[in-house]
Design brief:
It is a single chain. The protein is an alpha+beta fold and 79 residues long. It has a single domain (2-67), classed as lambda repressor-like DNA-binding domains (434 Repressor (Amino-terminal Domain), Orthogonal Bundle), CATH 1.10.260.40. 48% of the residues lie in helices and 13% in strands. It is built from five helices and two strands. It has helices spanning 8-14, 19-26, 30-37, 46-56, 60-63; strands spanning 2-6, 64-68. The longest helix has 11 residues, at 46-56.
């Protein structure tokens, strides 16, 4: 099963940027950025995504990654 993950932590590290600085640039509160940064988000508002992408000058594709989950309990092998 695939899982969409957010690469915000990696992108900020590549730019030597803190969440505080991103918050200042984007106008997104730190408490909104925290679950996104730690990839523990459940829902994201499109406006929030747009602000992050605009502040970092990236696209949605740069921000998110589609990963295959390892050890998925619901994955069956057909023999």
């Amino acid at each position: 099963m695939a899982r969409i993950t957010c690469r915000l932590r990696v992108l900020l590290a590549e730019r030597n940027m803190t969440r505080v600085r991103l918050s200042e640039i984007s106008g997104i509160p730190l408490n909104t950025l925290a679950p996104i940064y730690h990839d523990r988000w459940h829902r994201l508002d499109r406006k929030t995504i747009d602000r992050i992408c605009s502040a970092l000058n990236i696209t949605y594709i740069d921000l998110f990654e589609n990963k295959e989950e390892q050890g998925d309990l619901f994955k069956f092998k057909i023999k």
